[in-house]
Specification:
The chain is 0% helix and 54% strand. With 526 residues, the protein is an all-beta fold. It has a domain at 439-525: Immunoglobulins (Immunoglobulin-like). The strands form 10 sheets. Strands 1, 2, 3, 39, 40 and 41 form a 6-stranded mixed sheet that branches. Strands 4, 5, 6, 7 and 8 form a 5-stranded antiparallel sheet that branches. Strand 14 (144-150) and strand 15 (156-164) form a beta hairpin. It is globular.
Length: 526
């Protein structure tokens, strides 16, 4: 069954970090406030690692200026760290963006008021600390709208636009994790016509594809990490059309999908595919072409170039979130579906895992303007009945979602209200295939008396795994397998004929029907 769920339990035990891909169901926890009360926060962005950890950034007022703050999520404890302020005191900061590498390190960029102030900081997952911010757009006039993307090793590429010669142009810079430095900015778009809305996506080798809008035309340039150079900009949208809101995502191998909104001569969502080997873009195709208004597309692409696109569609009566999926094998987009049929919905985001399943978040425009999530199942090509991820009656905005590529978790962020101030809240969606260990474990040694002898045994107890796919338990004593228990509801095990004295160390795993294991719990009996 493909469905998102809402849950009232909180994960308090460690979980497996590697394993099979999971199905398209996420069980969302109640929302948790991750920014501090007392001042308003907004503009949250996040990245999620393959293993399910996450890093988030947002803006929050300190009473005088908006500052950039960051916090980290641990899937092992289902908890967020206390926020850390990253940007400079006494200076207003805005529009943060962030990316993660495969080790959980992160790079964030943002704008600070003042000349040339695109700033960056790096999160070190090993130490749990942030670097001091540095300026990466020295001398630029009015830099704005930075975006950033990381490769698996921690290098990053950022794009933004600046004011130059009476127009805005697109610039880019590369972060070298080996030297911990940013390159001098490179201008990607030609002068003389305003360019903005830059987006970038980096593949597993460190090559990248950037796109932007210039004079109503979508343009692109690709980056070669071997030569550290950018190609000349090329038009990828059709001539004679007016286009905005470009999005791009690359596969692990570097092929790409781009989508954008075309407002003239017709109102639709267009897409094109980039072939890295040939260095060329396909002719654009229409994902949706109708008399309805279609706007503000969002794109998510996985390692194999499967993609999900969502956007707002208006048929003259209702604004609703629409979606389509891309199959790279057939090079086709699916038929368009309404994610929440018949309901007025706005302000959406989408994530996809490496199985091609995904999740979209959005607001129902009631009021109250509550947050909802719907899950996409690739096999059935269907979206689940939406579930609420905000508190009932809470007005939210700017919902964001990212998912681990393995599908073990999806994390939604949004701006909510604590009664006085806007705050950043998070809702964690655990994958339905997530295999959790038992909890609440304990053990004790018991003497069993018989008429002519006595025996010592160790009694192990635990609370059964809450995973729906739990099929049994495996028990090791001092590194040796001693039992396989069938059935997910076992609450303990008796290990007979143990010595009166000495220490036994037990590890207990939850098993699924395929023999997959959770992370272990440890029980020590003295």
């Amino acid at each position: 069954m493909n469905r998102c769920q809402f849950s009232f339990w909180i994960l308090t035990v460690s979980i497996t970090l590697f394993g099979p891909l999971y199905s398209a169901q996420y069980t969302f926890d109640p929302p948790f406030q991750i920014s501090q009360s007392g001042q308003s926060a907004s503009n949250a962005e996040l990245c999620v690692t393959d293993t399910g950890n996450a890093v988030a950034v947002w803006t929050r007022s300190d009473g005088a200026n908006n500052r950039i703050q960051g916090a980290q999520f641990s899937i092992a404890t289902d908890s967020w760290t206390i926020p850390v302020t990253l940007s400079s005191v006494g200076i207003t900061a805005s529009t943060p963006a962030i990316c993660c590498d495969s080790s959980g390190n992160a790079v964030t960029v943002w704008v600070e008021t003042g000349p040339g102030n695109i700033r960056s900081a790096r999160y070190n997952a090993a130490t749990g600390t942030w670097s001091a911010p540095i300026n990466i757009a020295l001398g630029a006039i009015a830099p704005a709208d930075p975006q950033v993307s990381c490769d698996p090793n921690g290098n990053a590429l950022a794009v933004w636009h600046i004011f130059s010669g009476g127009f805005t142009v697109i610039q880019a810079s590369r972060f070298n994790v080996g030297t911990m430095t940013w390159s001098a900015p490179t201008t990607l778009s030609a002068p003389g016509v305003t360019a903005n809305d830059a987006e970038i996506s980096v593949d597993d080798t460190g090559d990248a594809v950037a796109i932007w809008q210039r004079g109503g035309v979508i343009q692109s340039s690709s980056f070669d990490v071997g030569t550290l150079t950018w190609t000349a900009a090329v038009d990828i949208s059709s001539g004679g059309s007016t286009t905005t809101a470009p999005q791009v995502g690359v596969s692990a191998a570097g092929d790409a999908i781009a989508i954008w909104e075309r407002s003239a001569p017709s109102v639709d969502i267009r897409a094109a595919r980039y072939n890295k080997g040939a260095g060329t873009w396909s002719a654009p195709v229409s994902i949706v072409a109708s008399a309805a208004v279609n706007q503000d597309p969002i794109l998510a692409v996985n390692d194999s170039l499967q993609a999900l696109a969502v956007w707002e569609g208006f048929d003259g009566v209702t604004v609703t979130i629409r979606a389509a999926s891309f199959n790279p094998t057939t090079n086709t987009w699916s038929a368009v579906q309404d994610v929440d049929p018949g309901v007025t919905t706005i302000d959406t985001d989408v994530a996809i895992d490496n199985s091609g399943n995904g999740v979209a978040v959005f607001e129902r425009f009631a009021p109250p303007q509550e947050g909802f999530a719907s899950c996409f199942d690739l096999v059935t090509n269907s979206w689940s009945t939406p579930v609420m991820i905000s508190s009932p009656g809470e007005n939210i905005n700017n919902p964001q979602v990212q998912a681990a590529s393995s599908g073990i978790v999806a994390i939604a962020l949004f701006t909510g209200v604590d009664g006085i101030f806007n705050v950043i809240e998070a809702s964690t969606g655990l994958g339905s295939g997530l295999l959790l260990p038992p909890a609440g474990a304990s053990g004790k040694r018991i003497k069993n008396r018989f008429p002519f002898q006595k025996e010592y045994f160790n009694e192990l107890s635990w609370t059964p795994s809450t995973s729906s796919i739990a099929a049994g338990y495996q028990i090791f004593r001092n590194g040796t397998l001693i039992a396989n228990l069938s059935g997910g509801q076992h609450r303990g095990y008796r290990d007979h004929n143990r010595p009166k004295k000495g220490t036994d160390v037990y590890t207990v795993f939850t098993l699924d029907v395929a023999g997959g294991k959770s992370s272990p719990i440890t029980i020590v009996v003295n």
